[in-house]
Each structure stands twice: as C-alpha cells, then as structure tokens.
Amino acid sequence: MIILNKDRKFPDNMVNAHTLLLKAKRGEKGNSKSTRYAVPAFNVTTFQGINAVIKACELLGSSGLLAFSNSALKHIGDGDQTFALELLSGYIEKKAHRTSVKIATHLDHGDYITEPGRKVLQSSIRYLTSVMADNSTDHINKRAMPLKDNIDLTREVVNMAHPLGLSVEGELGVLAGEEDEDTKSEFSTYTNADELEQFLNETGVLMLAPTIGTMHGPNKGKPGQKVKLNIALAHELLGLANKINDELVFVAHGASTLYPNIVEYAVDKLKMLKNTNGVITKWQEFVGTDWDQIESLIEAGFCKINTDTENRQTFLSALLGAITGNGAKIDIRYYDNISTDALTQSYIQKLIMSGNYGVWHEPKINVEKFKFNLNQGVGEVIHAAS
Ligand code: 13P
C-alpha cells in the first residue's frame, strides 16, 4: 500500500485535505482539543466563489476546503480543464500566501474510468492538493462499478497521488441525484459493509465517501417529508474503518441543507415579476438534507461535508433581490458585490454550524451573534456580530 507522503511541502498555507480533516476528526483547534467538527467542502465555480470562501474562513479562523467539479473546471477554463487548473492554482496560491488560515484544493468526483476523466485527474494531481477518484459508478452502462474494478482504478490514483503528498478520496456505493451535468445518477446503492475492509485495505485511500442515503442536488426528498439517512449504517461503517486505520476520514456528499429564509426571500422577489408561478413552485418544492441528520453524521465521525446546492440557492436569491431592487443599475460590480456578499454569508453560516471556526486563530466575530440576513450586506452582518 502506498503511504501518503506527509513531508510534501505545498506553497504557503496550502495543505492536502486529509490534514485538515484529520484535525477535525480529532477536534484539534489551535493547540487545544475541542469536540469533533466538520470541514465543509464548498464547490466553487467562479473566482467570486473562491474569494467568498477564503474571506469567510479568514473571518472565522476556519480550515478552508475548495472543491472543483469537472464542469466547474470546464466553465473556468472555457472548455479546457487543465488550463482552468493552472489558472486556479496560481490564483489560490497567491491568495493563500496572504491568509492566516490553511487551505486545501480538491477535485470533486474525478473519475479514472474514461479517457477525459483520467486526463483531468492527472492534471489535478499536478495542480491541486487533493483529489477524489470516484470510480463507483459505471456511467456508460448505468450500473454500480464491480468492486474489483473500483478498487483497481482507485488504487492507480492513490499510487500516483500519495507519493506527491496529495490525499485521495474514494467512493464505495452509488450516490443518487444530480450535482451537475457531469455528475449524476438516477439510482443509488448503500455501501456494503462486507466490501469496506477490502476496499480500504486494497486501495490505501485515507478519505472515503460511503453512501448512506444522502443525495446531490436541490430535490433530496418529497416536500413536507424529512430526509432520513441511514445513521446506523454510518456508525457501522465508521466502526469498521476505525479498526483498520484511525486516520481514515469519512465524507458526506449531498450535505446541503435548505435555508427557509433563503427560499422565502427568493419567492418574495419572484412574486414581483410576471409569469413566475411555475418557478415559485419549484423553489417551494426544494428539499435539503435536514441539519440534524448531518449533525448526527458529524457526531459519528464524518468530517468532510460536501456543500454546493445551498450556496447556489443563496447566490440566486441574492441576484433576484439585486435585480428586483435596482434592475437598471448599469454596473457589474453592484451585482457581483451583492451575490459575493450573500455567498460569504452562506459560507460563514455553514462553517459555524459545522463547528469549523477558531481552528487557525480566534474568530474575528462573535459566532453566537451571527445572523444570516440577505437584506443586509456582509459588512453590516459582521458588524452586528462584533
Ligand atoms: P449538495 O448537492 O447537497 O450541495 O452536495 C454537493 C456534493 O456532494 C458535491 O460533491
């Protein structure tokens, strides 16, 4: 098994994701020990998103984990993912040099199955600090990948990444839902506990995404019904994994919750526009994973919670507010500032909820007093919590 090279030095303040997650699993903050917390992996698709994540982490002294999907890379690189990675790594390294926290960059749902997938993974190993090798689904034949193939493909990635100090996340089981055009599945399977030991021992991954009932996207269940995760399975899998290696960390995909105040805000703004009944219904039918379920996972020992959809919803709500508030403002910065402020608030909120603050320095605000409010800019909200 190829051991993770812990001596690799990344540029200033950059680390691999596993370093941040192990700290969270052990409840390490500064020089002291607290209760276990989680590091949200925020999916970002723009430089605006990167700025907002770093700002939120700096304010709270949090560990920062920036995740990029294949389609985010296509978007940033105008179709060329390798070019996107080159641009992003340069930008993030320069920002990280000036921060007071530690930051990891992670490829989300990379696959080593297809030729294009392999190319993106290889480039990511060159430019990022952590990668996901998601070989759990055979997207061509729409079925779960046979265990042996998932193991063989994931081990190949570990063999390339670990010697260079990059952590690798594997996936066992199939997660349903649509993260974006490149990551979707109409079916799901729970992780099979009997396969876990073999997968972990034979791949050597230190980060694992098991499937215990979470889903990608904005429709994680039926409106009015609570999303129920298989928490008992989560405990069983973690118990088994900890016996193999207590440095193993678990990852919850599809961890977005839904903020009722964001839905209310968007619906309110949409009502000011014509012919939006259908869109309003869609907003009202969004279902996130209930936070108490994610909290149970964190208590069980999951320490990376993948969070995308709720931030997209916040972004869109803020934009609707900007357009209905002053849609004749001919200034890109106006819309950019409003939506970046909203994203920053969304990230601050989730970092506080997951206990990821005060890790690298004391928070610069009173976390108890922080109130997420789209009617105010981030400056005002921060001032009110000072
Ligand atoms: P959400 O769709 O719940 O935000 O999950 C994102 C995710 O799991 C990315 O890998």
Side by side, the strands of the main sheet go 3-4-5-6-9-12-14-15
The backbone outline, from C-alpha atoms, is globular
What is the chains' assembly state?
single chain
As a whole number of angstroms, the C-alpha radius of gyration is 20 Å
CATH architecture of the domain at 17-259 and 290-313: Alpha-Beta Barrel
Separation of the first and last Cα atoms: 49 Å
Query: What are the low-pLDDT stretches, counting only 5+ consecutive residues below 50?
Result: none
CATH superfamily of the domain at 17-259 and 290-313: Aldolase class I
Q: Could you report the average pLDDT, rounded to the nearest whole number? A: 94
CATH fold type of the domain at 17-259 and 290-313? TIM Barrel
Please provide the count of β strands.
15
Q: What fraction strand?
A: 15-25%
Please identify the top-level CATH class of the domain at 17-259 and 290-313. Alpha Beta
Describe this entry's structure for a reader:
46% of the residues lie in helices and 16% in strands. It is an alpha/beta fold and 386 residues long. It has a domain at 17-259 and 290-313: Alpha-Beta Barrel (TIM Barrel), CATH 3.20.20. An 8-stranded parallel barrel has the order 3-4-5-6-9-12-14-15, surrounded by 10 helices. The model has no long low-confidence stretch (mean pLDDT 94). Bound molecules: 1,3-dihydroxyacetonephosphate. 1,3-dihydroxyacetonephosphate (13P) binds at residues 43, 108-109, 179, 216-217, 253-256, 306-309. The site of 1,3-dihydroxyacetonephosphate has 14 residues, from strand 5 and strand 15.
